[in-house]
Amino acid sequence: MSQYPEARFITSANATRQFVADTGVEVAVAGRSNAGKSSAINIIVNRRQFARTSKTPGRTQLVNFFDLRDGQRLVDLPGYGFARVSDAQRAHWGELLSDYFRVRKSLKGLLMIVDIRRQLKDYDRQMMAFAEEVGLPIHILLTKADKLKKGQAANALLQVRTEVGERATVQLFSALTHQGEDAAREMLEKFLLTRP
Ligand SMILES: Nc1nc2c(ncn2[C@@H]2O[C@H](COP(=O)(O)OP(=O)(O)O)[C@@H](O)[C@H]2O)c(=O)[nH]1
Ligand SMILES: [Mg+2]
């Protein structure tokens, strides 16, 4: 059963003024388009189709707010890294995300979804920089771990751990096999338990 039976979508924002009231606690989830962000959210929240999965890159272009429980939110950030969009749109998202990280007092942690076969890209490094600027803890899910052999996955994990050092914790994850599901949910819960 889902740990979040009351979980529900609240609203999407394309501008800072559309963000929901900055009370309680929230955890942001970021990942390049097609990294597997929606799939990971569905597994962690244990609700099929909770965050829509899509084969179309760049579909999720808004800041999506979900209630997990009363006063606890999950925020699905746009993954513009892979999307074929104009420079103007890209700049808009950059500003929106930078604003989001700077203004949200309720923001307690960042979950980063990274395709294990692609390693960290500019988008991921930018998200980490935004989080670090405001002293936010970062946890990285190397997802689609099922696509690699065990040894390859372990190597990829070591590589990312070496790159990020103390700046983030890193784990293997798969929405297909549910590898790392419990560890991912524990990190989400840990972030959510941070005092408002
Ligand atoms: N094999 C495998 N495929 C996955 C996994 N997670 C996502 N996918 C696939 O990758 C594609 C993109 O996933 P999606 O969750 O929509 O990515 P998003 O754009 O980051 O939200 C879809 O075809 C998913 O079925 C995983 O852990 N393993
Ligand atoms: Mg998605």
Structural description of this entry:
This protein has a seven-stranded mixed beta sheet with strand order 1-3-4-2-5-6-7, with helices on both faces. The protein contains five helices and seven strands. It is 33% helix and 22% strand. The two termini are 27 Å apart. Strand 3 and strand 4 form a beta hairpin. It is of the alpha/beta class and 196 residues long. Helix 2 runs parallel beside helix 3. The protein is globular, with a radius of gyration of 15 Å. The site of guanosine-5'-diphosphate (GDP) has 20 residues, from helix 1. The site of guanosine-5'-diphosphate has 20 residues, from helix 1.
Summarize this structure as a short list of keywords or feature phrases.
seven-stranded mixed beta sheet, 5 helices, single chain, binds guanosine-5'-diphosphate, alpha/beta, 196 residues, binds magnesium ion
